[in-house]
Amino acid sequence: MFYWLLYPLRDSVSLFNLFGYITFRAAGATFTALIIAFVLGPPVIRFLRRHQIGQTVRDDGPATHLSKQGTPTMGGLLILMSVLVPVLLWGRLDSRSLLVVLVTTIWMGLIGLLDDYLKVVRRCSKGLVGRYKLIGQFVLGLGVGAWLCFSPVVPGDPVAAPALMPSVRSIDLESAESIDISSTETTLPFFKNIRIDFGILYILFVALVLAGTANAVNLSDGLDGLATGVSLFSILTFGVMAYLLGHLNFAEYLHFSYLPGVGEITVFAGAMVGACLGFLWFNAPPASVFMGDTGSLALGGAIGSMAVVTRTEFLLFLVGGIFVAEVVSVIVQVSWFKRTGKRVFRMAPLHHHFELLGWAESKVVVRFWIIAGILGLLGLTTLKIR
After folding, report:
1. CB atoms < 10 A from the CB of 374, how many?
2. How many angstroms separate the CA atoms of 308 and 242, rounded?
3. How far lies 98's CA from each of 103, 230, 250, 285, 319, in Å?
4. Per-residue confidence of the chain (386 residues) as pLDDT tens digits?
5. Residue 56 gets which letter from DSSP?
6. Which residues lie below 8 Å from residue 57, measured CB to CB, with a gap of 6+?
7. Where are the beta strands (DSSP E) in the chain?
8. In which element (H, E) is residue 186 found?
9. Of 17, 186, 337, 375, which alpha carbon lies 20 to 30 A from 145's?
10. How far apart are CA 142 and CA 136, in angstroms?
11. What is the rounded CA–CA span in Å between residue 67 and residue 97?
């Protein structure tokens, strides 16, 4: 909104020229989201507590978790509200990439909201039946995949190259040799000239990426601040990737495919970072509110869709390494127990295993944050190490 209202006035008021810069609008979105989260946090928590929308704690988990029984949940609503408003204010909605990420985040959040509502309000112990949850996720994924596959170029997509790097020549959009990625291709980390073209199967691939990432983050949401902090590092990483790949000169400098309009994802990433930081204020141990599936599925949808629009889906295995480890621990635990009747881990997902080894909850959370930060930095190195 601000871009359309204020940027056209730049000739009259030079200060409004700032609204043409993605970095400025991303910073504005970050602070706006943070303020919204701080302001809405207390009333949202009071509302959830007043209506007894509290967490049910499994009795076979670590004994320290029993004290969390009844803690307000569905706090992911706070994240969604804190993201939506800043994106509408600071983002350019003529960017298809921004729309894909925003719609995916909201859609996944609504699936999680329905699941939380059934579990907490309607007292259905299993919440939304798993197959229905997957159907909702796959319908979204197939729709997003088809849109990206059959409408690869949108004339309105903004081109981000307002400022040139001193050491890089000005590049014509038509002559930039990096603008050659197919609508059904994706890149591989650490490889410059190797791409995978899925053809029509790209639609199914996108659906698998979105559903898989959303559920991986959901599995990781078991400790105060864990999923929030780890997701924050992943979002930061893909936000930086989006800015660089959506900037004509940076993309050419990095010898990477230039993706028009993807730079606007930086604004979304800023809003999501602000929302996560604001939510973490209330979710830090001991948590005053849990995000529930509303938040975890929304965060997973955001991360997965950011990877999709930047064509770095396989980078999720590195940047989202914590989420991958959590999923693998569950798969190994279940499959091995069915085969032998024995457990590999003391408890799955993985974070509970370390708790039962004697690690304090805060130690598990902070160490997972550190690992997530390192993995994010490693992910960014793939832009040059190829």
Report:
1. 12
2. 11
3. 8, 22, 19, 33, 21
4. 888 989 898 989 999 999 999 999 999 999 999 999 999 999 999 999 998 887 776 655 665 666 677 789 899 999 999 999 999 999 999 899 999 999 999 999 999 999 999 988 888 877 888 899 999 999 999 999 999 988 755 444 565 444 333 343 444 444 444 445 778 889 999 888 788 999 999 999 999 999 999 999 999 998 999 999 999 999 999 999 999 999 989 988 888 888 888 999 999 999 999 999 999 999 988 889 999 999 999 999 999 999 999 999 999 999 999 999 999 999 999 999 999 999 999 999 999 999 999 999 999 999 999 999 999 999 999 988 87
5. P
6. 65, 66, 68, 69
7. 185-187, 195-197
8. strand 185-187
9. 375
10. 10
11. 42
pTM listed for this prediction: 0.91
Assigned token pair, 356: 């039962």
- Following DSSP, what letter does each residue of 35-51 receive, concatenated? HHHHHHHHHHHHHHHHT
Asked if residues 25 and 3 have their Cβ atoms less than 8 Å apart, the reply is yes
Beta-bridge partner residues of 160: 247
Give the integer Cα–Cα distance in Å for 303 and 79: 14
